[in-house]
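WARN retry 2 of 3 for item q-0093 after timeout on previous attempt; input resubmitted unchanged.
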Amino acid sequence: MKILHLSDIHMGSSFSHGKIDPTTGRNSRLQDFVEALSCCIDDAFEQKVDLVLFGGDAFPDSMPPPYVQEAFATQFNRLAQARIPTVLLIGNHDQHSHGQGGASLSIYRTLAGNSFIVGDGVDTYTIETNSGPIQITTLPWINRSGLLTRPETSGLSLAEINQLILNKLQAIIEAEIRKLNEDNPAILLAHAMVDRAVYGAEKFLAVTNRGFQIPLSFLARAEYDYVALGHVHTHQNLKPDNNPPVVYAGSIERVDFSEEGEEKGYVLIEITQNAQTKQVNWSFNALNTRQFKTIRVNVTESQNPQAKIVKAIQSCQINEAVVRLIYEIHPEQHDLIDIKEFAELLKETHHYSIKPNFTGNKNQKRLPEMGLDNHLTPLDALKIYVESRQKELSDVAQDMLKIAETLLSSD
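OK item q-0093 returned
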């Protein structure tokens, strides 16, 4: 029996790293994600898989634009037309913010009769494939409101609430395990943050009230032949002894620069079983996705900062890559820089950004263009200030400018 495990498609993400296609009027990064998903489906046909497991997070949120939904549905409809059983699990980005269920995925229950399953609850399904029956236990993203009531959590600390959730979750998983038929292979499909995972872009969730960690021991049960995980974008196996394999497939395309050095792809699982033995083999299959590249240059000690930055750009393979140029520079070197030359060199990229980081003595006059004689508007002055403090303000810069525009345009 062959199974394709993929996760975290995030169709419609990363538009800030793309450009508008003049022929379609749509962001070029959408096509990147479509092509990555299409490659997964192509390989499903080529490998003649019996089942496809999707580990959650189809879109950036539960209400994607119709054209993004159409792009996603077109690819999965290929599986429906071929009658390849498919399980779509609900991830945290798939859940509607005002209630239970996966608003962005629920419609897929209507595809191809019973061959498409939407896992929006903890349940175990027996699926008939061309190679025999297999059992799939679905564990979608768990939020507190789904398991607890307000009276249960009244007066409890965050740690106590998380422990209460884990106690309930452990009992639920045990109940599903008791349903399993040991004669048939079984897989646990979960969208979760597991305590031994190496996080990438999702790391911030571990320290906020939006997520909690599930102990590996809850999921790595001998009753399951393979644990298919979604949520963490970095591909990894949490059980090197493969007893059983507990595998994050990872995302199929890079969402941002936090995933710059990661390979993207899917996992192919093969289960061989006879009356005496059962063997599970799996392999990660990398996809040819668009490269993200960071060019970092420190020119604070350079007599010719322009030439040093130009050389750094020319030494990097940037053709059709998403590139960010970040250079450290003293404020007094500002007049030695010609950004237009950098822009000309970066034209062969798919998309680029240029970010100077100004360093030096905080007490020295750093921004001569901010002088009173320049007659700047408050918004222009703020833009110059934000640009000069990119390193410290990168996370909030755009919000600062939007709020300033609102304040300055209001009564």
